Amino acid sequence: MLPSRLLRFSAALAFLHSAQASTNPFTQYAVDFPDPNRVAAGNLPKNLAGAEDTIVAWADEMNSYGPWSVTFKQVLAPSGDKHDYMSWAPYHWPNCTGIPNSASFTPPEIWEKCPYITRDGEANPDRILINDFQSFFNLSDAVLYNSIAAVLQGTPSSSYSQNVAKFIDTWFLNNDTFMNPNLNYAQMDRGPTGQMGTFTGPLDLRGMAKIASGILMLRKTKNSDWTEARNAQFVAWCNKYIGWLQTAPQAKSAAAQLNNHGTIFVSQLAALKLVVGDTNGAVSLIQGYFSGIFKGQINSNGEQVPKRSDPHTPIPLSEFNAGGMITNARLLSYADPTLTPSGWNATTQQGATIQKAMDFLMTVNPATSQETNVTIEIYPNIAAVASAYGDASGKYGTFLNKSGFPYANDATFLWDQPLAGGDLAAESEANHTGSAAGSTSGVPAPTQSATNKTKNGSLSRFGRLELGSWAAGVLGVIGLLY
C-alpha cells in the first residue's frame, strides 16, 4: 500500500490525467537523465498511458526532421573543416563604428572585421544562421524518445531503435557527416580578436545526458540495432570528447564556474563517463560537485546564489541550475545506488538541499522578472523532488494540479513521478539505498513560436518548442540558457 504522502500526490495528478488530452505538444527540456534501468525493466505503473502516448508521438515528430549533422550547416568554422561544431556567442553584437567601409561589409566581413560587444540577456538573432546547437538538441531528444519508444515496443528491433542507430551514425560516426570530438568553436567570439570558442560552449552539448540515457537503455534491453560494432565506435568517439572536456582551456573554465555552467558541465561529463564504462569516474566527478561548487549554490532559505549579472533572468537561470542539480543527483543514484549519502541528501554550506531550492522557486512569481512564460520548465523538477523526498503535505501535487499544465500526459511523467518504479514507490528515494529512481530535470528549451515575446521584442528564452511551426519556417532564438 502506498504511503499517504504519495497517495496525495497521485490523487492530485489523477485529476490532470483524466481531464487532459492524451498527448502534450512537444517540449524540449534542457537536462534529463531518465534512469535506464528503471525504464528498461518495464515495471512501471499502469497510469502512464498519456505519458507513453506522448513519448511515441514526440519520437515520431522528431523522426520527421532528422537526421542531423554538423556538416549540414552553410557556414564553416574558422578552421575550414566541415566536421567542426560551431555556434556563436548568443549575446554578442557587432560594433562597426569607426571601421572603414563597414557600410558595405558583407555578413562574413562583419563577423571577422567588426569588434563585438556583449549585451547580456539580449540575443543576436543571426546566431540561428549556424544551427548546430539546435540540431544537437533535436538529436538528443530524438535519441531519448526513440530509445524509450523502442523499449515500450518490447521487441529486439523496431523502427524506433533503427532511428536511434541512424541518428547516432550520422552525427558521430559516418565518415562524411561525423562531428569532430571537440567544441573548439562553440559559443565562439567573433570579430578581429575572436574566432575561437569560449567557456560557455560546453553548455551547448548538455543534451548528452539524454543521449547517454537512451543508449544505456538499448544496451540494457540488448536491442539488436545497437550492435557491438556501433557501440565500440560510439565509445571511441566519447572517449576522445572526454579527453577534450578534461584538457581544453575553455572546458576547464566551464568546469570551474560556480553557476549553471559548472553544474551542467558535471552532468554532461558524468553521463559520458557512464557511456564509456568509467562508472567510478562518474561517481567521483559528481561527488566532487556536491562537495564542491554545490556547497555555495543555495542559501538557507532556498534561494540560489546569483552568479550572473543579467538582472532580467534570475528565475530562469535558477530553474535551469536546479535542473542540473537534479540531473546530477539522478546520475549519482544510477551510477551507485548503494551510495550514502546520495546527492539528494547533500547540503550546502547554509544547510540547504535541492528540495529547499525547489521549495523556494515555487514561491517566486515569474512576473517579477517579466518572464511569465518560463514556468512550464518547473513541473518536472517539482515532480522529481516529490519522488525523491515524498509529498507528505501534498504541496507538490497541489502545485501541479493548480498549474493547469497537463503533467500526467507529459513525457517526463513516465519516470519523474512518485509511482514510477513499482516497489520503490513505497518509500522516499532520498532515504533509499536500493535501485535508483528514474529521470531528472526539466528545463525546456526556448520557444520557436513567434507569439512569445520578451519586453525587448526578442523571442522568449523558455517555453514550448512546437516543431510543426519550426518546420514551417518559424525560426526563433533558441537555446539561450547561458
TrEMBL record:
Tell me the first and last residues of the signal peptide: 1-21
Q: Which residues form the Alginate lyase domain?
A: 70-363
Annotated Gene Ontology cellular component terms: periplasmic space
Spans annotated as Disordered: 428-456
What's a single GO MF annotation on this record?
lyase activity
Family matches, as Pfam families: Alginate_lyase
Query: What ranges does the record list as Polar residues composition bias?
Result: 431-456
Coiled-coil intervals: none
Give the record's keywords alphabetically.
Answer: Lyase, Signal
Origin: domain of life: Eukaryota
Protein name (Swiss-Prot/TrEMBL)? Chondroitin AC/alginate lyase
Q: Which organism is it from?
A: Roridomyces roridus
State the organism's lineage: Eukaryota, Fungi, Dikarya, Basidiomycota, Agaricomycotina
